[in-house]
C-alpha cells in the first residue's frame, strides 16, 4: 500500500499529474459561548495509550465542497460526519496551522493533531439561513453539532479563502468570518484570483499574493497567515515565498501548502519544507483520508505525532 501513497506525494510538484490534483477545478467555476480549544487544553485525561512521539507525522486534511455525492473534491454530509467520528475515535484532535507552527497545540496527553483545512471558501463550508443563523447543513454546522457532544473536538480549522465574498451570501460575509474566528478557526490566504502560479510570471505571483494579503488585512484584520497554492501548484521562483517587495511594500507568509500528498513531516525533520507542506485530500481515493486513517495508527513509517 505504501508505494502508491508515496507516488501521490510526488504528484504535488509544480506540474502535478496525479488525478487528485488534475481534478481540482477553479472555485469560480463552482457554484458567544462557543466551543474553543481551551476545552482540550484543560482535559487531563489521556486520549490514547500511544507512547509520546513529538517527531511523528502531522495529518493535514484538505476539504473543498459539501455535496450529495462524494468525489475527489466533494464530501457528503454523512461522510464528513463519519470522518469526524473516525478521527475522534483514533485519538486525533483539531488544531490550526498557526498553533502547530507556534508549538502551542492544545492537546491532551496521548492525542494526535489533525489540521482540518478548507480551500476556496465555497458556500457549503459555512452557510447561513435567511435570518443570519448558522445552517446545520454545511461543514461548520455539522462540525459544530458534533462538537456539542464531543467538546474536546471543537470547530478549530484553517480556511484558505478567496475574495471578494468568501462563502457566498455577500451580506453575511463578515459575519461568517467573525463566527469562524470566534469558534477558534483561522483565516488564511489562497491568492486573489486562484491562478496556476506555475504558469505565472514572478510579478504576477507577487501581485496575486500581495493583493490577497492586503484584502485579508483590510477586510478582516488578518495578518501573518499561511497560504495554500491554487491547484497545489508552486511558483517557478520559490524565493518569492520567503518574502518579497511589491509596489514599495514588504510581504511575508507563514508557510505554504501543497495538495494531495502524504501526512507532513514534523518541523524537526530535515525533510520538512516550510514552503511545500503536503496535505491529504478528504476523499476515498487511494492516498486520501480513508487510506491514511487506516495506515497512520499502526504505521512504523508514518507514525502520527502523539502528545506527551
Give a short synopsis of this structure:
27% of the residues lie in helices and 13% in strands.
Tell me the fraction of residues in β-strands, as a range: 5-15%
DSSP, total strands: 12
Shape descriptor reads globular
Rg (CA only): 18 Å
User: How helix-rich are the residues, as a percent range?
Assistant: 25-40%
Distance between the termini: 29 Å
Largest pleated sheet: 6 strands, parallel
Number of helical stretches of at least 4 residues: 9
| Low-confidence regions | 1-43
Report the average pLDDT across residues. Answer: 89
Order of helices and strands: HHHEEEHEHEHEHEHEEEEEH
Give the structural class: alpha/beta
Any overview of this molecule?
This protein is α/β, with parallel strands linked by helices. Helix content is 27%, strand content 13%. It contains nine helices and twelve strands. The protein has helices at 2-10, 19-22, 38-41, 77-89, 97-101, 139-149, 173-183, 202-220, 289-295; strands at 59-63, 65-66, 74-75, 92-94, 112-119, 158-161, 186-189, 227-228, 244-246, 249-251, 256-257, 280-281. The strands form four sheets. Strands 1, 4, 5, 6, 7 and 12 form a six-stranded parallel beta sheet that branches. The chain has a two-stranded parallel sheet with strand order 2-3. Strands 8-11 form a two-stranded parallel sheet. Helix 4 runs parallel beside helix 6 (139-149). The longest helix is centred in the last third of the chain and has 19 residues, at 202-220. The two termini are 29 Å apart. The relative contact order is 0.20. Residues 1-43 have low confidence and may be disordered.
Amino acid at each position: 500500500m505504501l508505494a502508491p501513497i508515496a507516488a501521490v506525494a510526488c504528484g504535488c510538484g509544480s506540474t502535478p499529474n496525479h488525478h487528485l490534483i488534475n481534478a481540482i477545478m477553479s472555485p469560480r467555476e463552482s457554484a458567544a459561548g462557543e466551543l474553543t480549544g481551551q476545552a482540550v487544553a484543560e482535559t487531563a485525561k489521556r486520549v490514547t495509550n500511544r507512547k509520546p512521539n513529538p517527531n511523528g507525522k502531522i495529518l493535514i486534511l484538505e476539504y473543498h465542497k459539501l455535496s450529495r455525492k462524494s468525489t475527489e473534491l466533494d464530501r457528503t454530509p454523512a461522510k464528513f460526519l463519519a470522518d469526524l467520528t473516525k478521527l475522534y475515535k483514533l485519538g486525533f484532535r483539531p488544531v490550526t496551522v498557526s498553533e502547530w507552527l507556534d508549538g502551542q497545540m492544545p492537546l491532551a496527553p496521548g492525542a494526535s493533531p489533525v489540521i482540518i483545512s478548507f480551500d476556496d471558501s465555497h458556500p457549503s463550508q459555512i452557510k447561513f439561513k435567511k435570518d443570519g443563523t448558522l445552517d446545520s447543513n454545511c461543514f461548520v454546522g455539522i462540525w459544530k453539532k458534533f462538537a456539542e457532544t464531543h467538546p474536546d473536538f471543537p470547530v478549530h480549522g484553517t480556511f484558505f479563502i478567496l475574495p471578494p465574498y468568501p462563502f457566498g451570501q455577500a451580506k453575511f460575509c463578515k459575519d461568517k468570518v467573525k463566527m469562524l474566528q470566534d469558534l477558534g478557526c483561522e483565516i488564511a490566504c489562497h491568492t486573489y484570483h486562484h491562478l496556476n502560479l506555475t504558469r505565472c510570471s514572478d510579478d504576477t505571483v507577487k501581485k496575486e499574493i500581495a493583493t490577497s494579503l492586503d484584502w485579508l488585512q483590510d477586510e478582516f484584520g488578518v495578518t501573518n497567515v499561511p497560504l495554500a497554492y491554487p491547484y497545489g501548484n508552486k511558483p517557478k521562483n520559490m524565493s518569492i515565498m520567503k518574502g518579497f517587495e511589491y509596489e514599495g511594500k514588504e510581504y511575508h507568509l507563514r508557510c505554504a501548502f501543497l495538495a494531495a500528498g502524504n501526512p507532513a513531516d514534523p518541523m524537526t525533520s530535515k525533510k520538512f519544507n516550510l514552503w511545500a507542506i503536503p496535505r491529504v485530500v478528504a476523499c476515498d481515493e487511494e492516498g486520501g483520508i480513508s487510506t491514511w486513517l487506516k495506515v497512520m495508527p499502526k504505521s512504523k513509517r508514518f507514525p502520527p505525532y502523539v502528545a506527551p
